[in-house]
Amino acid sequence: MTAAPADKPKKLVIICYSGELEKTWATMILASTAGAMDMETTVFVTFWGLQTFVKDKKRITGVNWMQKMMSFMQRPGASHRKLSKMNFMGMGPWMMFQLAKKYNVAKPKELLEMAQAVGVQFLPCQMTMDMFGLKREDLIEGMGEPVGAATALQLMTEADSTLFI
Amino acid sequence: MSNLEIKLKVDASGLSCPLPILRATQGIKTLESGQLMEIVATDPGSVKDFDAWSKATGNAMVEQDSADGKFRFVLRRK
User: Fold this and answer.
1) pTM for the whole thing?
2) What are the angstrom distances between the C-alpha of A97 and each of A30, A38, B23?
3) Do residues A35 and A142 make contact, with C-beta atoms less than 8 angstroms apart?
4) Model confidence band, residue A8 (pLDDT cutoffs 50, 70, 90)
5) Where in chain B are the domains?
6) B67 interfacial to chain A (CB closer than 8 Å)
7) I need a labelling partner for A92 at 20 to 30 A (CA). Which of A4, A32, A101, B29 fits?
């Protein structure tokens, strides 16, 4: 078998919009694998998706009381995602992680680190940062400069494939 | 089996998708162009996945065989 390498790298853009565990998992699996396949991969992180990229140890984020209340009600961080169904006060995610361990499935946080290691770029949405009162130091290391919808759209029109997750 | 000169062996047995591919990526980056990596996986999906990965990255598939639920791939770094 001979491989036929592409002339120029394929480009993938993922819009990481959702913050639920199962969708975060999908984003991280595809982003890390795309990076491993030498695809130029950019993940635009917006709305609930950005909660995943807050440092795990951060408990309360935001400047005003509403932003703080929001982060209190929905704990940020890649390791604290909830399932959209069968969350059962955290019992659902706990069982998911037990199953993941049993079947050697990497957790979203591990996949995120591997994605960064293979050069996947994660770009935070400036508007979401403003609305939730998130600062750069609230977010994990290695994220790109905050950008807006125009940058996301430009990346999407130049990409070979775009996903909204 | 063959008498190829394998530079690096990676055991991805027991790992689920996409870990075998990610381990392969980590491994092959440590090699120089033309050197061979052997990777063993037990994930049945890895047969098609490694074919896709090889085509996408240009790291050529030199050998592929399977026995006793183990899938073996030999890849040459581009």
Assistant:
1) 0.92
2) 19, 29, 21
3) no
4) confident
5) 6-76
6) no
7) A32
Rounded Cα gap, residues A164 and A109, in angstroms: 20
Give the number of beta-carbon pairs within 8 Å between A and B.
61
Chain A positions in Cβ-Cβ contact with residue B64 (cut-off 8 Å): 1
Residues of chain B with pLDDT under 50: none
Which one, of A94, A89, A54, lies nearest residue A71 by Cα?
A54
> Rg of chain B over CA atoms, in angstroms?
11
Is the distance from CB of A108 to CB of A115 less than 8 angstroms?
A: no
Place of tokens 């069968």: A86
Interface predicted TM-score (ipTM) of this complex, two decimals: 0.90
DSSP B14-73: TPPTTHHHHHHHHHHTTSPTT-EEEEEE--TTHHHHHHHHHHHH--EEEEEEEETTEEEE
Domain at A11-164: CATH code: 3.40.1260.10
Domain ranges in chain A are: 11-164
Q: Would you call A6 an interface residue with chain B, using a CB distance cutoff of 8 Å?
A: yes
Question: Is B58 in Cβ contact with A3 (below 8 Å)?
Answer: yes
Enumerate the residues of chain A whose CB falls inside 8 A of the CB of residue B19: 104-106
CATH class of B6-76: alpha beta
Q: What is the pLDDT of residues A109-128, one digit of tens each?
A: 999 999 999 999 999 999 99
